[in-house]
Amino acid sequence: MLSLLNLLKDGRFHSGQDLGAALGISRSAIWKQLQHLEAELGLSIHKVRGRGYQLAAPLMLLDPLKIAGAPPFWPITLLDSIDSTNAEALRAVSRGQSAPFLVLAERQLSGRGRRGRKWVSPFAENLYYSLVLRIDGGMRQLEGLSLVVGLAVMKALRKLGVAGAGLKWPNDVLVGNKKIAGILLELVGDPADVCHVVLGIGINVNMQSADEVDQQWTSMRLESGQMCDRNILVAELSEQLQSFICRQQAEGFKVLRAEWEANHLWQGRTVSLIAGVNQIDGVVLGIDNQGAIRLMVEGEEKVFSGGELSLRLRDES
């Protein structure tokens, strides 16, 4: 099916006869594959008598050869469809694959965000990216890591035309109040010695509609008005990640703290911190040297950290 999709990805009309000749199969076989593309991948294909077949919108597919030519030269696994790139990355670690390596997919069937939320993952529209790193020397190497990843994602988006991209503690990248990217870190191994961390990143790239998303969102295409080549995005994101992670590992998160705070969209805003059934209201002061959030709560500065915390703007802010 993907051979057929590669012929159709330009968004132009192609006759059944030409498609069959190119693939060495019958026109009826072409018809069956087209039905599979629509059913399996959720693609819309126009069928016009006398003109042939046309994708409703052109596609830019991921190409490891284009990505691999740009540093850093991490081994890349590219999958057409997978439950989630983070899940596949964890399975690769359990099989003994040496880190660092990168897992990409055109589609996720069970994409995951923080706190078990679903990450909508249509075929060939967005970026589903999981980088695996080996961590030696214990938990200190992980201090502020999710915030460091956020900085890298933000910088990549800005370089590719999303000037309004900013950060929301702890794991989101927003444009205004709309989410454009999310980050999910997962750890396996001994955090006191040698472990592996999966940096899972989802970026809304060329998506223009999504009925399943239950929060305000945007995409690179909606912000810029242009389709983005996701191969260029992968290369830029990887370069930014390598740069920021090297700085964090060499000097600790404290060297990046001021830069992160300067790009935090909710700095100085009145917020509610949600921890399970508990809610704490306060004003965002910033973060500490470990990446924990600092709030002014009833006249007293308090610090909060943890993977299950969620920050929300208060109505009056």
In words, what does this structure look like?
The protein has nine helices and 14 strands. By secondary structure, it is α+β, with helices and mostly antiparallel strands. It has helices at 2-8, 16-23, 27-41, 64-68, 85-94, 145-159, 220-224, 230-251, 257-262, and strands spanning 45-48, 52-55, 76-79, 101-105, 127-136, 165-168, 172-175, 178-189, 194-203, 270-275, 278-287, 293-297, 300-304, 309-313. The protein folds into three domains: 2-55, Arc Repressor Mutant, subunit A (Orthogonal Bundle), CATH 1.10.10.10; 64-261, Bira Bifunctional Protein, Domain 2 (BirA Bifunctional Protein, domain 2); 266-313, SH3 type barrels (Roll), CATH 2.30.30. The strands form three sheets. The protein has a seven-stranded mixed beta sheet, sandwiched between helices. It has a five-stranded antiparallel beta sheet with strand order 13-12-11-10-14, with no helix packed on it. It has a two-stranded antiparallel sheet with strand order 1-2. It starts with a helix and ends with a strand. Helix 2 crosses helix 3 (27-41) and helix 6 packs antiparallel against helix 8. The radius of gyration is 21 Å and the shape is globular. The mean pLDDT is 90.
